[in-house]
Amino acid sequence: MEPLRPAGATPDASSEGAVAPDGTVSSRGAGRTRAAAGLVPDTVTASGERRLAQGSEPVCGYVSVVVDVPSRALSDPFAYAVPASFDEEAVPGAIVLVSFHRRMVAGYVVMRASELAELPGAAGLAPERVLPVRSVLAERAFGPVSAQLAFWMSREYVASVAECLRLFLPPKATPRVRKLEDGSYEVERPKTKEVHERWVTLTDEGRGYRPAVNAHRQRQLMEALSCGPVTTRELNFLYSSMSATIRTLEKKGIVAIEERRAWRGVSSEEHRLSSARAQVPESLTEGQRAALAAIERARKAEAGDVVVIDGVTGSGKTEVYLSAIEPVLAAGKSACVLVPEISLTAQTVGRFRSRFGDAVAVFHSRLSDGERLDQWDMVRSGAARVVVGARSALFCPYRELGIIIIDEEHEQSYKQGSSPRYHARDVAAEMARRYGCPLVLGSATPSSEALERCRRGAHRGQAWTRVEMPERPGGAVLPRIVVADLRREFSGGSRSIFSRPLHDALMGIVERREKAVLLHNRRGFAPFLMCRECGCVPTCKHCSTALTYHERTHTLECHTCGSVYRVRPYPAPGSRCPQCGSPYLAKMGLGTQQVEDALRQLLPSDVAVIRMDADSTRGKDGHARLLEEFDAAECAVLLGTQMIAKGLDFPEVTLVGVINADYALKMPDFRASVRAYDLLEQVAGRAGRGERPGEVIIQTYLPHDPVIRAVASHDRSVFLSHDLAMRLDAQYPPYVRLVNVVCRGRSEERTRSFANRFATEVRRVLKLRAPASAGRGSGLVVGGLPVVLGPASCVIERAKDRYRFHFLVKAPLDYDVSSAIAEALARVGEERGISISVDVDPYDLM
Ligand SMILES: Nc1ncnc2c1ncn2[C@@H]1O[C@H](COP(=O)(O)OP(=O)(O)OP(=O)(O)O)[C@@H](O)[C@H]1O
Ligand SMILES: [Zn+2]
Predict the structure, then answer these.
(1) 578 lines ligand 1 (CB under 6 A)
(2) What atom in ligand 1 is closest to the CA of residue 283?
(3) 0.90 cut: is pTM over it?
(4) Residues 713, 704 contacting (CB under 8 angstroms)
(5) Which of 344, 538, 585, 693 has the fewest beta carbons under 10 Å from its own?
(6) Ligand 1 atom nearest residue 476's Cα
(7) Could you say which of 565, 588, 611 is where a domain stops?
(8) Residue 71, pLDDT above cutoff 80
């Protein structure tokens, strides 16, 4: 056996701890207020402005304003004076127009004081140097807690305060200030408008009114109104033009017309899915009662405690959420429920609406601007006190937040992929702390971060408690799991997509007229090589990650440390598996469409084959339509990518098949196996949720991998003990914190050298901050000093014509790594043509 040899770089090991000559470094104080330098600009056009401050107006107070300019360096607020005419509007939360460095910009008021010296950091400023607020662009858009949260997020995620504050604004409300050619400025306002509807109601007098026998129209109108108010739009639609009749009866005082705000996005569209209702169950399971008791304790404690519901698939977590929200609403407070974007289907939303009616606002990415704005206003006005949405629903203008619930807590989609790169779980925990309300995290496969915090019992001063729900209600049992060993299938001469066990099970479904779900996962697919005979996937010698195959250069590359290995994949002569020497070291890849074709060939034509992937679900109701089709079919197979794995509750599904579990297993990322485990456990959970028992068939070349063994035995510890030992050994979360810094630029050389300078600066800052007691060369992370790894090329080396280099910082859990990076960033400064992204607690290391 000949080992693969590195042909390129070796890992950077130059991060040595050393005693700093001087332990302290001055840093920019967050929340300090400065004076904005510059002259009052030329003129401002009054487009959209009600009025502008006059230079001579008396000053009635001072405000701290965060200016909305795209620079990380400008996070500190600046002081402005409040002219008397804006006394009432220039309050914290308002958006104002101010002049800043000779131009006009929008800014957010974060504090107000009557004397300049009362603003933090403004003590030394001379009042005559402070410029006036020129105009108020929008009334109060966020409250004081939101402002504090934005400052917290800015520090935690090394992002500008303005960009964090923007999260709390009404949808599309960020005003743009543009300089026109003639030197004047124009404020572009959001274009979305409110919609009002006219409602027709019977007056008290009208109730006894009997129209004349021949007054046909009037009789129709009276009948339509007998059950309650109706909109003029509906009346005109039902009885083509009712306007004249309405006017007549209004004059007589029989009906009244009232204008009300219409809430777009609360479509009373029928949910045809059988499972989109949530009847109150006759009794709760023991696990459900225990979970509710823990949530109730957290609610009473008012300390922002966290309850992790560790409940197997189908254990009834949704029912726990619904029951936990009831006392919150009874206390007059609001509830925020986050679900993964993919779960925001008729099924989940229907369950909440069937329990709480129209008081449920919903946020998902398919809403139009108008719908989004209305849903937001519904929350602000108090008309909706339950919000169900994807991660951004955290930032709604809640009236007294009383509970935050995050379903499928382990989901990667809770991490925002662009700046500010926050994680909804951590922001929610901080919000829970500030509001003193419980945070509930539910999952069948809780994240290792959540489990570790529960094991310790606390995190950042909040209590973390885990409650198990090990059983499905009503006697439903977890499905039987069969592992189909593809190596044996291959050596037995089979080249089919379906192994013998999966083939037979599908035939059983056809015979019994049941339903099956087939998973073909290709998310984040990076080409890799795998031995078709022994299942070996070449991994890096310096890192425990799978190597990525580069077709052009015939190399395997490690994207964590940069090592490069030459390779000849099958069918090139000389192809050899590094483990068993087999010539079948082949590139892996198979599309969903190919699987669909094979299914149609295999199954009789009266079996519905429904494919759900990014292509087939385009369009507004793509998902719902396909699910309804599956629901309505008598006998069907639902084939899809990971989007079919979660949350779906179809009792008639008795078979789940996984085409190839190994795509999910071997990704160049330390979280690859936990993602594979989560996915397999979730998809397996779609089987046997009803009365009939379920079966799961997992096809794999790696039947002995701890992930497969854990799923097969319904025993998470088989996987966890292996995964956690690896993470502790390699120093990965949940034992340390990671920060991934990516630098992008058109010039490869300049980007590389910038990344080097930045990494060097980070190392310097870390050294300076190290306590004198830290020994020389101490590179320990757990309980020791942070280390910097890299820079190296990113997995995706070049994207959109930009070269990408990254370095990783590993720091102890309680180390303030964000401020160290912020300080290093301030020292290297920004460079033209190079963009930097700082990702604290990253999920995507590609
Ligand atoms: N106490 C109960 N008695 C009877 N049926 C219940 C009870 N609680 C929940 N159910 C039903 O059990 C089914 C599964 O519940 P639910 O979808 O909430 O599971 P889940 O824990 O969210 O599962 P997953 O993690 O797989 O999404 C639903 O059809 C629900 O109506
Ligand atoms: Zn490596």
Answers:
(1) no
(2) 1
(3) no
(4) no
(5) 693
(6) 12
(7) 588
(8) no
Residues 6+ apart with CB under 8 A from 573: none
The residue-averaged pLDDT of 590-615 equals 83
- Is 111 in a helix, a strand, or coil? strand
Q: Do 409 and 308 touch, CB atoms closer than 8 A?
A: yes
Residues 391 and 466 in one domain: yes
Distance CA 209, CA 385 (A): 38
Take atom 1 of ligand 1 and give the residue whose Cα is closest.
Answer: 284
Q: Which two tokens stand for residue 327?
A: 């006392």
Residues 291 and 424 in one domain: yes
Beta strands in 37-188 (DSSP E): 43-44, 59-67, 78-83, 95-100, 103-113, 135-138, 176-179, 184-188
Alpha carbon of 705 to ligand 2 centroid (Å): 21
Do 420 and 447 belong together in one domain? Answer: yes
Q: What is the pLDDT of residue 21?
A: 28
Check the annotation: does 336 bind a ligand: no
Distance 314 CA to ligand 1 centre (A): 5
User: Which region among 40-44, 532-536, 811-815 has the lowest average model confidence (pLDDT)?
Assistant: 40-44
Instruction: Give distance in angstroms: CA of 275 to centre of ligand 2.
Output: 47
- Write the CB contacts of 65 (distance below 8 Å, at least 6 apart in sequence): 77, 78, 79, 80, 96, 98, 107, 108, 109, 110, 133
Mutate to test the pocket of ligand 1, among 283, 318, 646, 652 (most ligand atoms within 8 A of CB): 318
Lowest mean pLDDT among 18-32, 33-47, 139-153: 18-32
The response to whether 743 counts as a known ligand-binding position is no
In a 3-state reduction of DSSP, which class is residue 643?
helix
Assess if residue 611 is contained within a domain.
Answer: yes
CATH number for the domain that contains residue 609: 3.40.50.300
481 and 604 in a single domain? The answer is: yes
Nearest ligand to the C-alpha of residue 538?
2
Percent of the chain with pLDDT over 90: 38
Task: Tell me the mean pLDDT in the region 448-472.
Answer: 94
Residue 148 within any structural domain of the chain: yes
**DSSP bridge partners of 741:** 807, 838
The highest-confidence range among 175-189, 447-461, 717-731, by mean pLDDT, is: 447-461
307 and 437, same domain (yes or no): yes
Identify the pLDDT of residue 427. 97
According to DSSP, residue 474 is labeled G
Q: For residues 601 and 787, what is the distance between their CA atoms, to the nearest angstrom?
A: 55
Average pLDDT value for residue range 145-163: 93
Give the Å distances, CA to CA, from 603 to 498, 512, 576, 688, 770.
Answer: 12, 13, 37, 22, 66
Rounded mean pLDDT of 73-90? 85
Helix axis angle, 216-225 to 243-251, nearest 10°: 80
Phi-psi region of 614 (alpha: psi -120 to 50; beta: other; left: phi over 0): alpha
Starting from the CA of residue 678, give the closest ligand. 1
Tokens for 675?
């993602």
* Strand, helix or coil for residue 186: strand
Cα(575) to centroid(ligand 2), Å = 22
CA–CA distance, 781 with 63 (Å, rounded to integer): 43
Structural domains counted in the chain? 6
Do 101 and 245 fall within a single domain?
no
Q: What is the CATH number of the domain that holds 253?
A: 1.10.10
CB 503 within 8 A of CB 518: no
Atom of ligand 1 nearest to the CA of 443: 25
Whether complex ipTM tops 0.85: yes
Is the pLDDT assigned to residue 595 strictly greater than 70?
A: yes
> Is 531 annotated as belonging to a binding site?
yes
As a whole number, mean pLDDT of residues 785-809 equals 84
Tokens of 99: 């002049």
- pLDDT confidence band for 325 (50 / 70 / 90): very high
Query: Is residue 816 located within the same domain as residue 694?
Result: no
CA of 699 to the centre of ligand 1 (A): 28
pLDDT of 270 above 50: no
pLDDT band at 45 (very low <50, low <70, confident <90, very high): very low
Domain containing 56: what range?
34-188
Distance CA 516, CA 772 (A): 63
